Amino acid sequence: MLLPDLPQELGSLVPADWRGDLLVGEMALRLCYSALVDADSLDTSAHFQGLAGPRVSADADFSHLYQRFEGRRRAEIAGRGGSPIAALREQIYADCLAAAEREPGVFRLGAPTGAGKTLASGAFALRHAEKHGLRRVIVAVPFLTITEQNAAVYRRLLDEEGGEPVVLEHHSQADFDDPDAGRWARLAAENWDAPFVVTTFVRLFESLYARKPSAMRRVHRLANSVIVLDEVQALPHAMLVPILDGLRLLVRHFGATVLLSSATQPSFWALEEFKDVPCTDLIHDTPRLVSELRRVRYEWQLDPQPTLADIADQAAAERSALVVVNTTADAKAVFERWNDAAQEGTVWHLSTRMCPDHRRRVLNEVRARLDEHERVLLVATQLIEAGVDVSFPVVFRAMAPADSLLQAAGRANREGRMAGGGRVVVFAPQDGGQPPSYKTLVGCTGRQFGPDKADPDDVAALGRYYRNVYDMLNLADGQHVGKRIQCARQRWEFETVADGPMDASTGRRDRKLAFRMIDDDAINVVTPQGAETPELRLELEEAIVDLRHAPVPDLAKLRRLQAYTTNLHPSALRQPGVMALLRPILGTEVRRGALVEWIGEYDPATGINLDPNMEQFVF
Length: 619
Description:
Blueprint (H helix, E strand, L loop, with lengths): L15 H5 L1 H27 L13 H17 L7 H14 L6 E5 L6 H16 L3 E6 L2 H15 L8 E4 L11 H10 L4 E5 H8 L4 H4 L8 E6 L9 H14 L3 E6 L16 E3 L4 H7 L3 E6 L6 H9 L4 E4 L3 H12 L7 E4 L5 H16 L5 E4 L13 E5 L3 H8 L12 E6 L10 H11 L10 H14 L8 H10 L3 H6 L2 E2 L4 E2 L13 E4 L7 H16 L5 H7 L3 E4 L13 E3 L10 E4 L3 E2 L3 E2 L11
Parallel strand pairs: 1-6, 1-7, 2-4, 2-5, 3-4, 5-6, 8-13, 9-11, 9-12, 10-11, 12-13, 16-19
Antiparallel strand pairs: 14-15, 16-17, 18-19, 20-21
Helix pairs in contact: 3-5, 3-6, 4-5, 12-13, 16-17, 20-21
């Protein structure tokens, strides 16, 4: 017998709650499996390194980290010029610190865009962890642009030069082979053995509902942690049922605290999974705060419907303006309208036709020009919304779901310095496109918002909008994918949750009914043409050749390509000539989920060049 001290009967060691509720037991098994996998990996690593024991970080001193965070924040504020909303930001910050003294549970931070939620939520998490002896802070956000932006803020306030880092940035674009990242980052990313983790919704929740050891090593770190979900309105509607239930269980049974942060707080409590979950609002009078922080006025151009050219011309008449549209084709159409007549260096384009590093460079240039009060005309898809820190005097937003309208408005007059307020023009382009998923959401938006109706920042109307969305999407229906995942969880069918139920007709698992945060049917396209310099482009092309011929892919080279990898919707493959411009990197065919190289034209302003008249894919 390998373990002579192991008792014959283990039932007494299992908490009654774990045995009495199948969903609690399922979550407990996930956490226990994660801890076991991590312990095995750490022990194995220690053995081969000749260490006496596994390498595990000591518990963080959150009292010290909070004091460092607060001291540096105050120093930064003292060095800034005042703004009309600075006092309100300080009040929000103070309210968050006061709420951090409350017992662990579910908290909600509903404050308008530009209200300082990044700093306020970080301070809440650190103070709450200190007060209640929690083990770590995990901040998750929906988009890579926000992950990188927020991680930079938290590193500036928490990391100590020369000391072991505090903040771990973990997402698909994080380069753990960078010498500056160090061995700590590479190891900590495997199991989130860090005091303060900044990650993405995809990484967090697909780890939670995974079943493979490499993905699950970090799941047990969620217990006894503060989990901050920033821009929580961006959680995919289809997965809300298992996501909310997972959060409920982590809070109620496994010592976690969850903070839901958003300017457009969804009505999660209208769904069964959250209806009995107590919640503490960090801001007590959100409607008053919205009124005091209102920095824009809304205008509507819905009837008659303008063309994209009309909107481009209206924006071009402004000193600076942002136009947000719903498809990459629309973004390119607006950009080309400007580019024919605009002064060089004043017009910019952002969409996922461009690789992430290209988008980062454009955002940096746009911010620098805005800071210097230089003219900027920027057209972008949805990726500019939800936390991207830019401020324009005028924002034009194509009709979209209500939360997108409000998020776009957050890019106007961000500091509240304009005497008359910023302008947000919501328009319905007669020649514009939209993703198929928008149809229901835009319909719900039109019922609540518009001329002679509410503005998108109306808190009560926003609540009605979300409830209408949940009803129209049938989230409570037993045959909805979220409910079917819940049923699989209750039966402890871990493979069904992660990979979908078995399809009797094909003998394969149906991935469409599995837990997944994003549609993974996209084609991952590497664009070395998006590199900043010819030398870097050559380096990337050499890495592609090495990967194509290597018997085993070099993970360091794959990570090197991530910042130059974007996605094409599968519908792009149906366009004449596109398949011929995609060359496999791993494997021998171009298919959904594959990694391929784009060998076609890559425009230095707009990225991958497809025929805009035929294009159907979106941001």
